[in-house]
Every structure is written in structure tokens, then in C-alpha cells.
Amino acid sequence: MGPWILLAAAAASPGVEAVAPAPAATAPAATAPDATAPDAAGRGVIAYPPSFFAESRPVNAYDMVVRLPGFTFDKGAAVRGLSGAGGNVLIDGQPPVSKNDALDEILKRIPAGAIERVELIRGGAPGIDMEGRTVLANIVRKQTAGFRASVMPGIYQIYDGRQLPGVRLEAQWRWPGGRSAEFGQVYGTGPNDEFGDGRRTRYNPDGSVRLRSKVEADAYGLRAWTTGAYETPLFGGRARINGAFMLTPAEVEIYDRYQTANGGEYEKNEIDRLQAELGGRFNRGLTDRLSLEAVGFHQWNNQETTVVFEAPGLTRDFLLDRKTTEAVGRLNLRYRAGPALTLEAGGEGALNNLDSETRLAVDGRPVPVPAANVQVEERRGEAFLRGSWRPMPTLTLEAGVRQEVSRVTSEGDVTLGKTLTFTKPRAALTWAADPSSQVRLRVEREVGQLNFDDFVASPNVASTGVVVAGNPDLTPQQAWVFEAAYERRFWGAGAAVLTVRHFEIRDTVDRGPARDAAGNVIRDPVTGQPAADRPDNIGKSTKDEAQASLTVPLDRLGVRAAQLRGQVTKRWTKVDDPLLGGTREVSALRPIDWEAHFSQDLPRWNTTWGVDVFGGFRERYFRLSEIETRKFSPFVVVYGEYKPRPDWILRLEAMGVTSRNVRRIREVYRGPRNAFPLDYTDVRSLEWDGSLYLRVRKTFGS
């Protein structure tokens, strides 16, 4: 996708890079000519020099990472705290100290010319915190002085005639003595391919048509971001500070014109979002074997969501004003006991605050919403101890334990105070069966972070009329995870990886009936049935995953300088339905995800071209009085990149070559699903007919 595509209905957006170099954090890795052999010590770290990527002429670190054999990029999750928040790419051995920036955006700000090598860490390496993962990539940057900058204007030509321009400016300075600075500015608009034109049909329970309509929907988002960072030697160590100020408004407008009746529906959803953050890291070696790392981070997020819905004889107005802050401090001591043993100990403390106000009016009259106005505070602390032991060159064992304690209090519509304590052990074993094969095993108790989005009411109530309340009384979901992976490397740059996982989950976060401050189910005064639903803990569940990835260099098949990459993940989930009592799948978890990528370098013409296919997927949500299913068809992007000179790059993308269909199916009941029959099934099918995206990049410096 282009760099400015936004999901207009998303509750969070990317933020700012915060990269802390630690050149000594990883052991040196030997670079084989074909960049496929592990390092000399057999540690499973493969180093890829710039020459490995030369034919593809990468622009930045992201272009390099996505071409790593046997690696599937993951930009991480938006959670509170620093542990587990980052994705699966490190920069100079450290994860970014940032929360609002997607990892791909961070990597796009690192020029390819500033990279010394890219390491693929399989199973672990001394001094590296794997954060529960078995494979990481590590970007190692050059330390030479210099200046690099780029300007990148671009424009979308949408199928409906809209033109959405944007520009990105980046600059990096590095001076002798280890000082460096970075600056970035992004301003531009982008489309949302979830909304297009189409039709809606409402069916009666017997299959007959109750209503047909024609739908026209437009959506877009704006990014106005300013980011910066400065790094310098300090007190015998290294310090880095980074900051960001980000405006990310978005808008969705839907016209739904009836064809079998008079009138129509209109919906407008506006999100005004402001995010700011400040983070820093300090690293210092205390002795030859003992080192210290201190991290501090603070962020502010203000978001106002307004929704207006109009239909014949009906108007709904919704407002959600949410303000959150987060302050995190982290201290880590690392002790290298010997070449084969590394020990670490430390702790993290966090203070999180939410101030949320919700208003709903129907035909101008206020309507009560459970947990509409709440102020939540979470104080959380975590201590950890872990170690990495390599008893032989082909075997690595990582083990550790984290102890988490938190205190959650809420005021306003929901008054509560509770203390949560979790012990989180982890063990991972990596065995290099031979130079081309590796087996990885992991067992861990994972504890999810509380999500403030679940604490506030959903704006969907404006368009659907179904109240989805917030719930500040959630308990984090816990799971015992068992994982096994087998990796096989072939043909120099080829790799095949098969991973299976089993999750035994407690306190599953899904949907349940809304409750009042005393814990009683809120019921309709007429029917006596539950009146609304909310995110809730609904008991135990299981999840099984099978993931396969394949990277195939096509030279041996007669296609020169070409690569085929693909990945597929299949999931099976099971949980007891709190309403009906039988088992069903867990809400929002996609049964299958897949994607495939073909790229070919044409050095003679200074050109690269390729095709990206993003597979279709399905999401299903089991609510109190409806079941909503969202289906997305596959999405195809064809691109070409031409480099007439070393400092100029032109890129053209045809996005949505096969169009994209997004279907929303609502099975709406006359009351709670356990007590009332089906009222109707509403099917909305929208087509996004694609866009062209043109980008020009001019670089300066060396």
C-alpha cells in the first residue's frame, strides 16, 4: 500500500520512530557470499550485506526487511507499556521507544545507504530480548558521518475522480563523535479502500426481500506528522531522545438511497485525532560484563468521534470524547557471565489514564449509555529475570519469568477498584539440526494488556441502533502458548518455515451483556431481557494456528533476479457462547490470512516490478442481538519502479487491479439471540474499484 493510506475508522494510528542504536548489542555475524550461512559460532544469526539487496535497489530499511528469506514482517500491536508493544524488527539491537508509529513507518525513515547489514536472528542471540518471538530482524546502521535527505511527493488518482496529493520530507545528520539527528515531515491525504459504491439488501427470515438500496460511500484520512530525534554520547554511554506531534483526522460519508421505498439513509463519521509523544533511551556499560539500559516514554492521545445518522423519521447523534495518557519507565541490567551465558534483570512501571465522555441522542432526546462517562487509572509494575544459555553451538535455551502487579480504579458511571497479579514464565529452545535446518520450540504464559478501546462505548450504535457499551471492569486475557517451528533453507536465498501453535486461554475477551455498577445485568424494562452488550470476559477458550511461509528465488526456474514469497495462516478457535451455551468461534479472529508477492529486478533497465496479492479474509462478531460478519475479497497491487539516476526514483502503483469487495452481513434478532427469533438479515456489498498512485523520490547527500 502507499505510505498515506489510512483506515478511517481505526481507533489508533501510526506514530513516530524512536530508535536507539546499540552497536554492541549483538554478536558480530559472519557474512557469507550468499548471505545464507549462520555466523561462525553457529548462533543462528544470518547477516545480509547491502550487496544481497543491490539488484532490487532498495530505498529504505523496510524494502530490505520484506525481502529477507524466511521472515514475515509483523509491525506489532498497540498495547500499553513497552513490553510486547514492538514488532519483530530491531534497530541496532533495540526495539523502538515509540507507541504511535507503525514499525513499517519507522523503517521507511532509515535510508538504505545508511545500513551496514541486516541480521536475521533465529532462536536468539546474546544481549537480545526476543520479547516472546523466535525470529527477529535487526537493522545495523553505519556509524560514518554524513548527511542524507529526501523529498517524496506523491498523488492518488481514485477511480471516482478524486485526486489526493501528499508529500514526505526526511533528513538525517551524523557527525564525528557519535552524534546524530533526524527530522521528518509528512503531510498528505489517502483513501480508505474499505468504502466504495454498491448495494444493500435487507431480507426477511423467509428469504424474501424487505428493502433494497443503492449505496455511495467515500472515506479518506489525513496525516500531518512532525517527528524528530537526537542521539549523543552521554556520561560514558549513549542517549537518544525522540518526539512526535501527529494530527490524523479521518472521515467516512455514506449515502444509502432506497430503491424499494421512499427516502434513504445518511451517515457521517468524523474522527479528530491528536497524538504526541516523547521518549528516550540511555545505554551504558558499567563493567566489561555488566551493562545498563534505562528507557522513559510519555504519550498523549486525544480523540473525538462524532457520528450522525439520518433515516426516514429517525435521527441519531453520537459523540465520544476520549483522552488518554501513558507514562512508562523501564530499567534493565544485563550481565554476560561467559561466552555461552547471559543474564538479565529489571523492571518496568507504568501509569495510564483514561477520561472518556459519551453522548447519544435519538430524535434529539438523550439516551442513557452504560459506562458512558468514566475516568480510569491503571498503575502497573513488572519485574523480570531471564537468561540465555548456549551449551553447544547448535543448541540455545532461553528462559525467564515476569511478575506483573497492577491496580485499576474507575470513577464516574462505573466505580471500581481491583488489583491484578500475574506470573508469566517463558522457555524457548532452538536446535540447529544442520547448517540449513532449524527447530524452534516455545512455551509461555502470555497475558494480554487491557485495551482502553474496550472501556468506552462503540460509535456503531449511531448507525445500527445497537448499544455496545464500554467495560472498565475487564480482566486481561491469559493464555498458555505452545509453539513449534521448523525452518529449511535452500537454493541460497530460499526458505520454508512451518509453525504450529496451541493456545489455552482463560478470561477470554469477547462479548457479554452490559452490567450496572453493582454487577447486575442491565435489562429492558418491558421485556426483562438484557438491554445492551459490551466487551466482557466469557471464560475459557482455545485457539490453534498453523502458519506456513515460503521464499523461492526463481533463477533456477529460469526467471532471472526474481523472487516469490508467500504466507498463509489458518486458525481454529472455540469458546462457549454466553447466551446460547453451545460452542462457537471467538469474535474478530480471522479463520485464514494469506498473501503472495512476486518481484523481479531488471538491472539493465534500472527497473523493478512486481505483483502483491493480499488474500481475502473474514471477521465475525457475536453480539447480544446480532451476529455481524465482514468479508473482504483479495486485493491485488501491480507496481513498477524506475531509477533513471542514483538520486531519482519513480514509482507507479495500480492498486486494486481486481477491485475489492467488502461485504457486511448483519443477522439482527428481535431481542437477545437466546430468547428472540431472527428479525432480518442485512447485506451491504461495496466495491472499491482501485486507484493509481504515483510517487517521485529525490535524495540528497551520500
Topology of helices and strands:
Layout: E1 45-48, H1 50-53, H2 61-65, E2 89-91, H3 103-108, E3 115-122, E4 135-141, E5 146-158, E6 163-175, E7 179-191, E8 197-203, E9 209-234, E10 237-247, E11 250-258, E12 264-285, E13 290-311, E14 314-338, E15 341-362, E16 365-366, E17 373-392, E18 395-412, E19 416-434, E20 437-447, H4 461-464, E21 478-490, E22 494-506, E23 509-513, E24 533-537, E25 541-553, E26 562-576, E27 583-584, E28 592-602, E29 607-614, E30 617-622, E31 626-632, E32 635-645, E33 648-655, E34 660-669, E35 678-688, E36 691-701
User: What is the subunit arrangement here?
Assistant: single chain
Looking at the overall shape, the CATH architecture of the domain at 24-142 is: Beta Complex
The number of E-state strands comes to: 36
Rounded mean pLDDT score: 86
Pairing-aware structural class of the strands and helices?
Answer: mainly beta
Structural summary, described in words:
There is one protein chain. With 702 residues, this protein is mainly β. It has a domain at 24-142: Ferric Hydroxamate Uptake Protein, Chain A, domain 1 (Beta Complex), CATH 2.170.130.10. Helix content is 3%, strand content 60%.
In short:
The protein has helices at 50-53, 61-65, 103-108, 461-464; strands at 45-48, 89-91, 115-122, 135-141, 146-158, 163-175, 179-191, 197-203, 209-234, 237-247, 250-258, 264-285, 290-311, 314-338, 341-362, 365-366, 373-392, 395-412, 416-434, 437-447, 478-490, 494-506, 509-513, 533-537, 541-553, 562-576, 583-584, 592-602, 607-614, 617-622, 626-632, 635-645, 648-655, 660-669, 678-688, 691-701. A hairpin with a 4-residue loop joins β12 and β13 (290-311).
